[in-house]
Amino acid sequence: MKNTKVFVLFTMVLLLVFGSIDLYSAKDNVESGWKTTKLSDFSVAFPEDWGSDMDTQVFSPGKVDMSRGMPALSVHCGAFPIMPGKTLLTTMQSHTHGKKENEKVTIGGLSGFICSWDYMSSKNIGVFLEEKVDGGMGMMYFIKCKAPKGEYSKYKETFEKIIKSFHK
């Protein structure tokens, strides 16, 4: 049983690190002027004029320049294992600087939490969805959106559409 758990964990890590990442234009449920991006084993839609850094799975209007870190206006997507003995909530809090207030949601057939938080000069909104896997583990899929506090309201609707576009 221990070997099975180790194998499952090892396989998940390999899939996260070396999983196929390709871009395609979805034909269904994408509004005009948007494109769907496939990441590992889920998809998210973005405005067509947004660029990406696929190594970090960061998206932003225009060209994404990661040379000085994550852009002030950006969306970060990915997946993270939920280790045995941990919960989605505790795993999520490590990505939201300890934010504990949240709202339960179901998006793309997965349940989880959505919350907003301020961190330094940015305002953030994120969704964290859980998929149960064997061996007492799970996967947390996340979409974290951030903008400078003074510009957040300008992008709030776009961020909400990005989050709602999640599909497994």
Topology:
Elements: H1 2-18, E1 22-23, E2 34-39, E3 42-47, E4 50-53, E5 58-61, E6 74-82, H2 88-93, E7 103-107, E8 110-119, E9 122-132, E10 138-148, H3 152-164
Antiparallel strand pairs: 1-2, 2-3, 4-5, 5-6, 6-10, 7-8, 8-9, 9-10
Low-confidence stretches: 1-28
Computed structural class: alpha+beta
Distance from first to last alpha carbon: 28 Å
Briefly note the CATH topology name.
Protein Transport Mog1p, Chain A
Task: Determine the oligomeric state from the structure.
Answer: single chain
Series of secondary-structure elements, N-terminal to C-terminal: HEEEEEEHEEEEH
Helix content: 10-25%
The main pleated sheet reads as: 7 strands, antiparallel
Which CATH C-level class is it?
Alpha Beta
Q: What's the CATH architecture name?
A: 3-Layer(aba) Sandwich
Q: Could you say how many structural domains there are in total? A: 1
Number of strands: 10
Physical arrangement of strands within the biggest beta sheet: 4-5-6-10-9-8-7
In what range is the share of β-strand residues? Answer: 35-45%
Mean pLDDT: 82
Question: Can you tell me the overall shape?
Answer: globular
Structure description:
The protein has 168 residues and is of the alpha+beta class. It has one domain: Protein Transport Mog1p, Chain A (3-Layer(aba) Sandwich). The protein has three helices and ten strands. It has helices at 2-18, 88-93, 152-164; strands at residues 22-23, 34-39, 42-47, 50-53, 58-61, 74-82, 103-107, 110-119, 122-132, 138-148. The strands form two sheets. A seven-stranded antiparallel β-sheet has the order 4-5-6-10-9-8-7. A hairpin with a 2-residue loop joins β2 and β3 (42-47). The longest helix has 17 residues, at 2-18. The model is unreliable at 1-28 (pLDDT under 50).
